[in-house]
């Protein structure tokens, strides 16, 4: 196949939370950016956007004020990617990101300087910074231990209202589970199909009719996160009006509707903002060409085009996103073969106890960067002036246990795009 | 002349063949309409339809217009490719006019012009020019069949042999004429017949004149002094000029004659020109006899087809007339291959090497099916090809013979279903996935029949699958099902799971695999880049191949009729 060539200022590799945030910031800064990646992985976003939920991890201490928490984290772990940014920068990045979601018709709700406590599908409670508006009444109801009806559906795997209620018995005694058939569906249910069918008013009415007889004295109704796809505000309003009480979503197992909502939002809005998408394609090869520019072979199974870029921002994620690959003896960065900060050998990847509260060394493996988010070698020397990295790929963090995934993605994407824009300004345009 | 018998024989074969082929238009079962009528009624109704069209001024005008623009002017071919148009015009007009002014000259030009002689101008020049024209047409046609990759793929030996046959007729004619020009034997014969003299003294001046001006190769060459030539000219004027122009106007044969001159003595000794005469005559007879049994028949049928086409599509015909029209369509095909070149699903042929996918090839499959000359294997292949067709109608639009192919395919699909060869989806509905697993397990296709790219046998295709169910979540087929387990038996991610375990047969008969609409959402959304849709597609093709082999084995072993067992009474809902 004949390869077509595209020239641009910046290639963003990756379409997860960090890649999408980077594309958003790049578009806002007017950079001529191409984005490459398989967007399906954003379906693994569960809804809540964490900033910092737990610190220190080993103690499992939940963070009340995430901003104070970040300040403390930066003191305790000066190598943490957050420590490369001013608190004000992180704050502004989050504000920009949330404003974008708001404009896109999928607003998120924060309590400002306080984390909110969210109920999960497993019946645990988790501190988080922002939640989709569809989930906003959940933390309030939990905080007040208000009488609440929790609806599960026959055929929906991984979401048992009864299990959630049992697990939360101590924290929320007035949570009453019920299991109902989903309107017009039999057999196994899939959240995306449920959400799409709730976009139709008819299904919403049937659902309201099905739930109402069980309402009793409930002041809230909780449901799995399937309340519509494109019209969440409408779906939520109709259900609340029909039931007469506030309704909220609880995150489901992944991939989740919450993630796909984000994905579709980005897919629709980013190209309109000037991002040139090469979605559902991957970087299959990379070369440094004249003038230090990067030439990337892009395609699905074979190279379909060459993208020649003045700079690259790597948001390729960790093992699931295939940014990192665990070989027999070592962990590799998959696209540039960058040096990876990692335990000396395989034996040190994990502690003996799988559920060790402090996490495992491999969880903090990743690509180390300088203050401008440019990957560095093991001596700390910057490798390339025009290669940047952001998101979960970065070393010295454990986003899952620290519950800082979204914040880390958005903030480091913002930092990296800023540095990249500065770099592009300094160097005369090609 | 004994040869005339051959001509009569060829003409009789031709006539009988034409009648036979025409008769079949009213007998061949093509489409469900043929079940509700008889050959007699089909014949009567066709006659009525023709009569009705001829007496109706507007419809007659339409037919005459088609005759002028489409038949004589070949407008459809001109629209498609000017070069092809030039080729076909040269070939058709070259051959037709040769028939008129040369082959049947006794009945045409000789009747019209009392002074006609084949060796006079303009007839000699015209014959040679027409021969060159036809030959040029044959050469371009052969080049097209060789150069265009699609056309080369669909070209059969018969297509090429017929072109070579036409070339042989023209070339043998030209060589014959050249041999006659240089032949002293022929000269002697003519002198005896027309001058009535065998006195060498008397003939010598004419010999000298003809050796010089008509290129006859005498051995030894006659003396050519001025006096002899003058006398020869007088003799020529008296005895020859009324029938003979100088051979220089035989633009094709004359250069050949010049080339033959050195060999003339040998040619005369073995009487080559007589043998050439036999050859030319017999090859021409052969072509005549073959006419109704080869695509040469299109000389008669394509004009008819184009005139009928001008009346409207087959769907507008009375039901009773449709089978005959379809049969006429089968006979009007010139196997030019343009339909296959523009077929929307022709690219599938690159992956599934079943020729019945291509419309130009499927047509003969349909003809065999109608004639009852199919084996289970070929019928399966025809069914597969027929049901890959998306009925986009491009073949009909492009057909220069005006065949309503779309109608033909619609009818043949119904015929296939009726004769027990429904689309593969139809087969699949007969059993559940687990029943199919057992059936198909015994019929793995031989390695040679495997496609070049095989995803499903390669574990690397699935290694990244984490069973996250994204494919199932985005699948519109799962979405429209009220109960996927019941309607589809498996969801895409469950199919992928079976594939991870290399339980190919268990997945092959699942309704999910067969109901996949190949929208590729699963594949595009898969966070791990698994080629889900490609895998489903491949499974379907493999099952088809296995069904085909199963059918073949059943055919070769009549005692085992239960390779594909009949659907059980507790079959699947909706089956």
Number of domains of chain A: 2
The main β sheet of chain A shows up as: 7 strands, mixed
CATH topology of the largest domain in chain A: FAD/NAD(P)-binding domain
> How confident is the prediction overall: mean pLDDT of chain A?
95
Helical stretch tally of chain B: 33
Helical segment tally of chain A? 11
Largest sheet of chain B: none
Written account of the structure:
The complex is a heterodimer of chains A (430) and B (575). Chain A has 430 residues and is an alpha/beta fold. Chain A folds into two domains: 4-102 and 260-426, FAD/NAD(P)-binding domain (3-Layer(bba) Sandwich), CATH 3.50.50; 121-250, Rossmann fold (3-Layer(aba) Sandwich). Helices cover 30% and strands 20% of the residues of chain A. Chain A is built from eleven helices and 17 strands. In chain A, strands 1, 2, 11, 12, 13, 14 and 17 form a seven-stranded mixed sheet that branches. A four-stranded parallel sheet of chain A has the order 8-7-9-10. A two-stranded antiparallel ribbon of chain A has the order 3-6. In chain A, helix 3 (87-103) crosses helix 11 and helix 7 (201-211) runs parallel beside helix 8. The relative contact order of chain A is 0.19. The model of chain A has no long low-confidence stretch (mean pLDDT 95). Chain B has 575 residues and is mainly α. Among the domains of chain B are: 1-72 and 319-422, no CATH class; 431-556, Fumarate Reductase Iron-sulfur Protein, Chain B, domain 2 (Orthogonal Bundle), CATH 1.10.1060. Helix content of chain B is 65%, strand content 0%. Chain B has helices at 3-24, 39-55, 57-72, 75-80, 82-103, 109-112, 123-147, 149-154, 157-182, 184-195, 200-213, 226-239, 253-260, 264-269, 272-290, 298-309, 322-332, 338-342, 348-351, 359-371, 376-388, 394-398, 405-418, 424-428, 433-441, 470-474, 476-480, 484-488, 492-500, 504-508, 511-515, 521-525, 532-556. In chain B, helix 5 runs antiparallel to helix 7 and helix 11 (200-213) crosses helix 12. Chain B is elongated. The model of chain B is unreliable at 565-575 (pLDDT under 50). The interface between A and B is medium-sized, with 26 and 23 residues.
């Amino acid at each position: 196949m004949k390869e077509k060539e595209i020239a641009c200022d910046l290639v963003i590799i990756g379409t997860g939370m960090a890649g999408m945030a980077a594309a958003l910031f790049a578009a806002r800064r007017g950079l001529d950016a191409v984005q490459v990646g398989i967007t399906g992985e954003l379906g693994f976003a569960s809804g809540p956007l964490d900033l910092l939920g737990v610190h220190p991890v080993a103690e499992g201490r939940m963070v009340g004020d995430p901003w104070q928490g970040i300040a403390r984290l930066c003191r305790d772990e000066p190598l943490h990617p957050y420590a490369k940014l001013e608190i004000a920068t992180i704050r502004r990045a989050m504000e920009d990101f949330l404003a974008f979601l708001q404009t896109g018709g999928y607003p998120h709700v924060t309590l400002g300087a306080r984390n909110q406590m969210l109920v999960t599908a497993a019946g645990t409670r988790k501190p988080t910074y922002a939640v989709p508006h569809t989930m906003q009444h959940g933390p309030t109801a939990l905080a007040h231990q208000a009488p609440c009806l929790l609806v599960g559906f026959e055929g929906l795997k991984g979401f048992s209202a009864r299990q959630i209620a049992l697990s939360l018995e101590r924290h929320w005694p007035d949570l009453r589970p019920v299991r109902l058939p989903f309107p017009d569906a039999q057999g196994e249910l899939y959240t995306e199909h449920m959400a799409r069918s709730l976009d139709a008013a008819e299904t919403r009415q049937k659902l309201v009719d099905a739930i109402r007889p069980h309402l009793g004295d409930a002041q809230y109704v909780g449901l799995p996160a399937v309340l519509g796809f494109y019209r969440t505000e409408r779906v939520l309003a109709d259900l609340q009006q029909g039931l007469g009480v506030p309704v909220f979503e609880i995150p489901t197992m992944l991939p989740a509707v919450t993630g796909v909502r984000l994905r579709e939002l980005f897919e629709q809005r980013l190209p309109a903002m000037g991002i040139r998408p090469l979605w559902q394609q991957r970087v299959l090869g990379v070369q440094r060409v004249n003038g230090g520019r990067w030439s990337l072979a892009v395609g699905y199974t074979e190279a379909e085009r060459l993208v020649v870029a003045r700079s690259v921002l790597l948001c390729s994620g960790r093992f699931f996103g295939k940014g990192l690959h665990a070989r027999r003896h070592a962990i590799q960065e998959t696209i540039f073969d960058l040096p990876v900060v990692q335990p000396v050998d395989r034996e040190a990847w994990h502690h003996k106890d799988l559920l060790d509260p402090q996490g495992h060394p491999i969880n903090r493996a990743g690509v180390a960067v300088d203050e401008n988010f440019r990957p560095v070698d093991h001596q700390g020397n910057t490798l390339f002036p025009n290669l940047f990295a952001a998101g979960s790929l970065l070393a010295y963090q454990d986003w899952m246990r620290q519950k800082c995934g979204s914040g880390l993605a958005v903030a480091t994407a913002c930092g990296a795009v800023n540095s990249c824009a500065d770099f592009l300004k300094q160097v005369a345009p090609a | 002349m004994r040869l005339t018998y051959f001509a009569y024989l060829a003409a009789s074969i031709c006539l009988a063949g034409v009648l036979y082929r025409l008769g079949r238009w009213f007998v061949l079962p093509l489409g469900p309409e043929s079940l509700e009528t008889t050959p007699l009624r089909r014949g009567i109704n066709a006659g009525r339809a023709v009569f009705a069209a001829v007496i109706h001024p507007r419809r007659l005008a339409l037919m005459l217009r088609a005759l002028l623009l489409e038949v004589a002017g070949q407008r459809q071919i001109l629209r498609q490719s000017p070069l092809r148009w030039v080729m076909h015009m040269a070939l058709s007009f070259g051959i037709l006019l040769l028939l008129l002014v040369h082959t049947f000259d006794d009945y045409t030009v000789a009747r019209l012009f009392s002074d006609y002689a084949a060796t006079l101008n303009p007839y000699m020049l015209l014959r040679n020019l027409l021969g060159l024209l036809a030959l040029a047409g044959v050469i371009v046609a052969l080049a097209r069949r060789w150069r265009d990759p699609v056309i080369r793929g669909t070209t059969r030996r018969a297509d090429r042999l017929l072109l070579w046959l036409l070339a042989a007729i023209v070339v043998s004619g030209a060589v014959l004429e050249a041999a006659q020009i240089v032949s002293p034997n022929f000269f002697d014969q003519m002198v005896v017949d027309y001058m009535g003299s065998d006195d060498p003294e008397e003939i010598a001046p004419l010999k000298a004149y003809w050796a010089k001006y008509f290129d006859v190769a005498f051995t030894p060459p006659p003396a050519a002094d001025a006096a002899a030539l003058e006398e020869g000219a007088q003799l020529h004027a008296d005895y020859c000029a009324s029938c003979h122009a100088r051979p220089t106007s035989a633009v094709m044969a004359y250069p050949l004659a010049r080339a033959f001159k050195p060999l003339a003595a040998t040619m005369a000794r073995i009487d080559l020109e007589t043998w050439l005469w036999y050859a030319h005559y017999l090859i021409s007879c052969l072509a005549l006899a073959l006419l109704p049994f080869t695509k040469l028949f299109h000389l008669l049928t394509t004009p008819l087809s184009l005139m009928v086409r001008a009346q409207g599509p087959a769907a507008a015909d009375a039901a009773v007339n449709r089978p005959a029209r379809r049969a006429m369509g089968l006979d009007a095909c010139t196997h030019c291959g343009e339909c296959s070149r523009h077929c929307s699903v022709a690219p599938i042929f690159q992956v599934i090497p079943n020729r019945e996918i291509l419309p130009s090839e499927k047509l003969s499959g349909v003809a065999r099916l109608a004639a009852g000359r199919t084996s289970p294997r070929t019928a399966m292949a025809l069914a597969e090809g027929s049901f890959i067709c998306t009925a986009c109608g491009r073949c009909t639009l492009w057909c220069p013979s005006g065949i309503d192919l779309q109608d033909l395919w619609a009818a043949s699909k119904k015929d296939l279903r009726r004769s027990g060869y429904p689309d593969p989806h139809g087969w699949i509905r007969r059993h559940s996935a687990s029943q199919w697993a057992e059936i198909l397990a015994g019929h793995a296709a031989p390695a040679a029949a495997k496609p070049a790219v095989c995803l499903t046998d390669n574990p690397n295709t699935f290694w990244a699958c984490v069973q996250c169910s994204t494919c199932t979540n985005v699948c519109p087929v799962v979405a429209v099902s009220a109960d996927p387990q019941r309607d589809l038996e498996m969801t895409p991610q469950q199919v992928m799971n079976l594939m991870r375990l290399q339980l190919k047969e268990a997945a092959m008969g699942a309704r999910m695999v067969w109901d996949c609409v190949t929208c590729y959402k699963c594949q595009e959304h898969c966070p791990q880049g698994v080629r889900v849709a490609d895998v489903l597609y491949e499974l379907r093709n493999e099952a088809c191949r296995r069904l085909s082999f199963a059918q073949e084995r059943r055919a070769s072993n009549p005692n085992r009729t239960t390779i594909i067992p009949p659907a059980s009474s507790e079959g699947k809902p909706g089956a």
